[in-house]
Amino acid sequence: MRTLRVYRLLVASSLRSRMQYKFNFWFSSVMSAFISVVEFAMLAVILHKFGHIQGWSLTESGYLYAVLHLARTLYRTFASDVHHLEKYLVSGDLDGLLLRPVPVLLGLMTLNVSIRLGELAQGVAILVWSMHGLLASGQIDFSAIPLTVIVILSGAVLMFGIGLATASVGFWITRIEVLQNITEDAARTAAQYPLTIYPKWMQMLLASAIPIAFANYIPSLYILRGEGGWWLLAASAIFALLVLAAGLALWRLGLTRYQSTGS
Predict the structure, then answer these.
(1) Do 184 and 190 meet the contact criterion of CB atoms below 8 Å apart?
(2) Phi, psi angle pair for 53, to nearest 5°
(3) Across the strands, what pairs with 53?
(4) Nearest to residue 130, comparing CAs of 61, 190, 223, 50?
(5) Where does the chain cross the membrane (predicted)?
(6) How far apart, in Å, are the Cα atoms of 145 and each of 13, 58, 151, 224?
(7) pTM here?
(8) So where are the chain's domains?
(9) What pLDDT digit, counting tens, does each position of 223-263 carry?
(10) Residue 148 in contact with residue 131, Cβ under 8 Å?
């Protein structure tokens, strides 16, 4: 409870500092939403022309996109600077976090907190549109709504775990931008589409080494198509917790290897 209280206070302080520049806050929110809309519009154009991708309709693909998008939005809202650990390692600013009377990870997570209203609104809009179409066609029923919420939360935990593990590698190699482009950005972009469009080796990669498939595609097989069984949802949630535990273990080990820049 004390940790949660400290986290809440630090987040409030970070938000107050960011809201000193209100125009920048709202402009960045609008632009983030616009970029996301363009990304989905490209997918929609392809599906409108060809009707489906490997048997996945526009509404199904929209569901996959929205679930992953919302999971990422939650992760980057509550732990944005974990993704930007490299700049703290290069500049030596991580030293300041080591001196604060709070856990280093907690301090890092509460720096530069940004409420991504544009991305959240855009993700919710696509999800509502997709699920409305799926409900209207009878492909899913209303039980899919609470299950989808669970999948989004589970996906956020999974993406946080992947991001934390990737960032922790920086304690050894310092420069991690290229690695993040693979484990976070490229993997997320690939998972926005049905995995069946990729060759088998890439499907295995996205379900094992970089397990982003558990954030949307694998649980969606059960929610949208009734394939597998409810155990796919349980497996996705458990896998997310395991990845988070691995990320935390790597983080703790990495902190013991940290050497200040001396600046």
Answers:
(1) no
(2) -120, 110
(3) 56
(4) 61
(5) 23-47, 144-173, 204-224, 230-251
(6) 34, 18, 10, 11
(7) 0.86
(8) 2-8+34-257
(9) 999 998 899 999 999 999 999 999 999 999 999 988 876 54
(10) yes
